[in-house]
């Protein structure tokens, strides 16, 4: 109801823009699509990443680190990732999965990891104050979700030069081009999720190429262009 009454409604991503139009949740003339702004200043320093690497890995042999950052709740569907991981670890025994975040599903997800037999290669780190630092620590970032208004995790990962594997869900699929900055997989398709992760884990050249493409893409979300759009909208109103 508030959106139907509003003079202007801002959708943060193209997919959310079209959802509101198709469902009649806002008047077509009131809709505007403007992304969240993003500051590259939030990227962690090399020293910050080294601290995390030392704390988590110590002197252990360095494998490939896959990181998921987000609230552990039903809509984030981290269970899809956990269910895909046995296939990943069978193909890539040196890979490790780090799950950063907390929430109402935390205990059930930990139990699911035990049931899937992946406890040795999957570790839950709980809530952390600087999630982006763990994204920068990663070799591959993964995000499984049903819906986002605007996915911060893929953007933060790309800003750090990390390739991303995400579900092709509204609010997230707009953040990257499949095969360019990362991989889009169908929601709920754990097999396809595993295949995408295995491909990136095995191919350092592909990881590097996607990481560079991601950094270039995020550059257009910096403050000035986005603020210009808001200024234009305010003047229009």
Give a verbal description of the structure:
The protein is an alpha/beta fold and about 240 residues long. The protein is about 45% helix and about 15% strand. The chain has ten helices and eight strands. It has helices spanning about 1-5, 15-25, 45-55, 80-90, 105-115, 130-135, 150-160, 190-200, 205-220, 225-235, and strands spanning about 10, 30-35, 65-70, 95-100, 120-125, 140-145, 165, 180-185. The strands form two sheets. It has a six-stranded parallel β-sheet, with helices on both faces. A two-stranded parallel ribbon has the order 1-2. Strand 1 (about 10), helix 2 (about 15-25) and strand 2 (about 30-35) form a beta-alpha-beta unit. Helix 4 crosses helix 8 and helix 7 crosses helix 9 (about 205-220). It is globular. The model has no long low-confidence stretch (mean pLDDT about 95).
Helix % is 40-55%
Overall residue-averaged pLDDT value? 93
What Rg, in angstroms, do the CA atoms define? 19 Å
| Dominant shape | globular
Order of strands side by side in the largest beta sheet?
5-4-3-6-7-8
User: Got a strand count?
Assistant: 8
Largest sheet: 6 strands, parallel
The multimeric state of the shown protein is single chain
Spatial gap, N to C terminus:
20 Å
Counting helices, strands and paired strands, the structural category is: alpha/beta
Relative strand content: 5-15%
Please tally the helical runs, counting DSSP H or I stretches of 4 or more residues. 10
Question: What pattern of helices and strands is seen along the backbone?
Answer: HEHEHEHEHEHEHEEHHH
> What are the segments in which pLDDT stays under 50 over at least 5 consecutive residues?
none
